C-alpha cells in the first residue's frame, strides 16, 4: 500500500528530530523506513502512521539511538572509502610517464634562477592548485538538493581533500622561515618563499598528481551517488 503524501511528509519531518547532519544519509534512512512501512501496510497493518513508524524503527534499527548510530557509522565508512579511493588513484597515476614528468620538473627547477619573479610564479601556481580542489568539489555538487539544516556528505568530505595541498603550501612558506628563525638568530629575515626553485617545481608536480587523483575520485563518487 502506497503511503499518502501527508504520511510521507510526517515520516521525513520526524526524522529531523534525530542527529543526522548529512543529506545523503538522511535520504537513505528515510527511504529505508518508508519502504518498511509500505511493506507492513501490504501485510495488512493499517494502524496510525505513528505506530507503524515506531514499529519499523524498533525492528530495523533497534530504536531511535540505532538510527543515530547508523548515521555515524555511515559517515565514517564514507570518509574511509573516499580516502582509500584517492590513495588508489594516486598510486595508479605513478607510471613511467609520471616519473619522467617528475624528473623533468626537478631538472627544470635547477635551471631556474632563484629570483623573486620565479618564486612568485611557482608560488602562485601551487596556490591555484591548493584551492582548486575546494572550488571543484563545490561546483561538482552545486545541484545537490540540500534541505535546511543539512549538509552534503560528498561536498564536505571531497572539499576536505583540498586541505592537503593547502597544508603543503603553508609548510613551504613557514618551515624554511622557522628554520632560519631558530638558527640564524639576529640575522633572520622573513621571506615569502625561502626554498630553491627545484624544490618548488618538484612539490608542484607532486601536488598536481595528487589533485588529479582527487578529481578522479570526486568524479567517481559523484557518479556513484547519482546512480545509487
Automatic annotation (TrEMBL):
Top-level taxon in the UniProt lineage: Bacteria
Transmembrane segment boundaries: 94-112, 118-141, 162-182, 194-215
This protein's UniProt keywords: Membrane, Transmembrane, Transmembrane helix
Record keyword Membrane present: yes
Protein name: Uncharacterized protein
Organism annotation: Mucilaginibacter galii
Amino acid at each position: 500500500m502506497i503511503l499518502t503524501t501527508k504520511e510521507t511528509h510526517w515520516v521525513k519531518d520526524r526524522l529531523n528530530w534525530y542527529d543526522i547532519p548529512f543529506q545523503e544519509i538522511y535520504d537513505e534512512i528515510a527511504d529505508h523506513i518508508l519502504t518498511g512501512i509500505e511493506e507492513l501496510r501490504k501485510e495488512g497493518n493499517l494502524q496510525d502512521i505513528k505506530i507503524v513508524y515506531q514499529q519499523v524503527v524498533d525492528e530495523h534499527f533497534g530504536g531511535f539511538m540505532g538510527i543515530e548510530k547508523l548515521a555515524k557509522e555511515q559517515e565514517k565508512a564514507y570518509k574511509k572509502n573516499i580516502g582509500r579511493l584517492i590513495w588508489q588513484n594516486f598510486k595508479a597515476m605513478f607510471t613511467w610517464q609520471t616519473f619522467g614528468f617528475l624528473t623533468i620538473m626537478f631538472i627544470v627547477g635547477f635551471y631556474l634562477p632563484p629570483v623573486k619573479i620565479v618564486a612568485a610564479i611557482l608560488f602562485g601556481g601551487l596556490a591555484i592548485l591548493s584551492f582548486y580542489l575546494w572550488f571543484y568539489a563545490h561546483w561538482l555538487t552545486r545541484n545537490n538538493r540540500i534541505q535546511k539544516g543539512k549538509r552534503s556528505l560528498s561536498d564536505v568530505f571531497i572539499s576536505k581533500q583540498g586541505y592537503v595541498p593547502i597544508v603543503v603550501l603553508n609548510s613551504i612558506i613557514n618551515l624554511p622561515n622557522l628554520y632560519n628563525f631558530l638558527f640564524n638568530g639576529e640575522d633572520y629575515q622573513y621571506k615569502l618563499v625561502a626554498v630553491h626553485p627545484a624544490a618548488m617545481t618538484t612539490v608542484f608536480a607532486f601536488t598536481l598528481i595528487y589533485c588529479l587523483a582527487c578529481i578522479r575520485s570526486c568524479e567517481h563518487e559523484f557518479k556513484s551517488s547519482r546512480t545509487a
